Amino acid sequence: MLFRETRGYHRRWPQKGAMRTSIATVCLSGTLDQKLVAAHEAGFDGVEVFEPDLVASPRSPEAIRARAEQLGLSLDLYQPFRDFEGVGPELLEQNLRRAAAKFALMNRLGIATMLLCSNVATARSGDEQLAAVQLRQLGDVADRFGVRIAYEALAWGRFVDSYEAAARIVRLADHPRVGLCLDSFHILSKGHDPEAIETIPADSIFFVQMADAPLLSMDVLSWSRHHRLFPGEGGFDLGTFMAHLVRTGYDGPVSLEVFNDTFRQVDPLATAVEARRSLRWLEHVTALSLGSAAGGGAARMSTASLPAVAPPADVNYVELRTGELQELRRLLMQLGFRSHGEHRTKRVELWSHGAARVVIGAPDSEHVQPTVAGIGLSVRDPATALRRAKDLFASEVPRDERPGEEPLLGVRAPDGSEVFFGAEGATEPRWVSEFGIPGHDDPHLIERVDHVNLAQPWQRFDAAVLFFHSVLDLGAEASIDVAAPVGLVRSQVLRSADGILRIALNLVPSGASDDAILPQHIAFASSDVIALARGARERGFEPLDIPGNYYDDVEARYQLEPGLMEELRELNVMYDRDEDGEFLHFYTHPIGTVFLEVVERRGGYAGYGALNAPVRLAAQYEHRRVASQGAPA
Ligand SMILES: O=C(O)c1ccc(O)c(O)c1
Ligand SMILES: [Mg+2]
After folding, report:
1. Start-end ranges of CATH 3.10.180.10 in the chain?
2. From the CA of 50, which ligand is nearest?
3. Residue 616 in contact with residue 544, Cβ under 8 Å?
């Protein structure tokens, strides 16, 4: 199992009025039993049983019911039942018989609600009155079994493809056993306005399914079946959606139904924890969207916001773990960093240049750890930052702290790296004095850490987006695809509003088994990248070699002054420009799975040189290829 963030939550019974949480078994990998255990361990209140999971299970319905009971999980929904309404009389008879068999099964499972998807195949008519009459008949059958039907408009329904149409049919059916299932994906994927949810009586909303998704332009069925995400990982405005729902007075389960090719493959407990985090985040944005009106309208569901955290004042340090410490030291020295020596008690050393601090050490043998093993942030209130993270089910990193040492509070990110919160304050954090050699205020060309680029294993990319978005309250920028020799690299930046903290996440292509193919990196902000590059060269620095073709292209695009053009070529400095300003930056060779970058932002340039990224990736690839062959190309 890769990169387990945490394990073993204990169930807490939902408080009255609190959001009841549920998850569809289709979100998780494994057998039905493994899915139930994962949902339980992540602290869900209930699950939706997806029919294929039940059919494939060797356990009897009674045994499944007992197992769920033992785990303290309610079985909230049986799904899906398909292609019922809008059919001719003969098919209707068959469909009613088919439904009765499922209702009997639900009785054995102890499930009270069945999801009915709008007909995608066999409907002959879109007459809403006809559909309503047939649903009423189905309601009568359901009544004999003491169960109810939640009718859901699929975005690709043959005739019924909007929640408003489904709501009209349910109103016409006018049967106490017939209500609605609202699924955020089907509504928002079609661009339908969720505001009219407020016109639906709460007692006819039987179930609610929430899913986020990346904003793709593709056919909606494929989008739904392969690309759904947990709330907070995609582009839908789910806080507004939920606020409409809460205002109706609905207080049933809020369930996650996320069809996703990655989540079907990875550790179900890790996914369940991620899912539970997404619902806590959803509750938070719902509370924000409802505002001080405390729910307003008929609200019965209470939604608590998370502790508010101010954006970090500073990136305090970045910690790198590598087996190639000697090379890393040499590189830092060449870039003008100074050593502060070893920590008093821990086997790490500190290097700094301006307010950029890099803690380096050998890999920790105890647990899986990416090369960028930690990021330290200065925050106004570390205890509150930790409390927010723990409210979001992040696991705290136990820290061995000696008397007199600066307290740092840390949590583990999905890739196994650590995020530490320290108190903001003086220009130099107090923990710096825990290292042997004191600070200094030599003139410096590097100011601070500009951004940190974290390559993510494909299994945990979306989880990392959710983690940084929710725990640190960072905004997610649109993701871009960068072409590398080993595949397309999806890259997404999360940043604080003021840009002090910027984390770029890169998704390692799944075929790229060797993680050295996509190293992690730290970018430092310089006031004069050209002067820094010159100084580094005098100290023996060899930059990443950028091809002449690149500079010909820059020259063609931007018509730079010949003097600057010459310097860029000579020093292997890359260039970008937009309406807001200019960007000059250069790269080091990778050392193992890490490399460094120095950037200079002129004017209001806020990007990362996206056009240069493929050139950089190709140059690094070439460097590795040549190095491994031990001969020049
Ligand atoms: O893709 C489907 O068929 C499907 C089934 C059940 C649902 O609740 C849903 O939203 C989609
Ligand atoms: Mg659904």
Report:
1. 314-629
2. 1
3. yes
Inter-residue contact 272 to 263 (CB < 8 Å)? no
Which strands, in side-by-side order, build the sheet including 356-361? 338-342, 349-353, 356-361, 314-321, 372-379, 418-423, 409-412
State which ligand 1 atom lies nearest to the alpha carbon of 209. 8
pTM score, two decimals?
0.95
Residue 18 and residue 253: Cα distance in Å, rounded? 10
Tokens of 109: 């499972």
503 Cβ inside 6 Å of ligand 1: no
Residue ranges in the chain whose pLDDT is less than 50:
1-11, 633
* Closest of 142, 134, 164, 140 to residue 152, by C-alpha: 164
Q: What is the pLDDT of residue 368?
A: 73
Residue entry with tokens 């039987």? 206
From ligand 2's centre to the CA of 157, what distance in Å? 12
What residue ranges of the chain are covered by domains with CATH 3.20.20.150?
Answer: 20-293
Tokens matching residue 150: 């939640």
For residues 1 and 602, give the distance between their C-alpha atoms in angstroms, rounded to a whole number: 44
User: What kind of architecture, by CATH, is found in domain 314-629?
Assistant: Roll (3.10)
CA torsion 290-296-302-308 (nearest 10°) is 30
Q: Give the CATH fold of the 20-293 domain.
A: TIM Barrel (3.20.20)
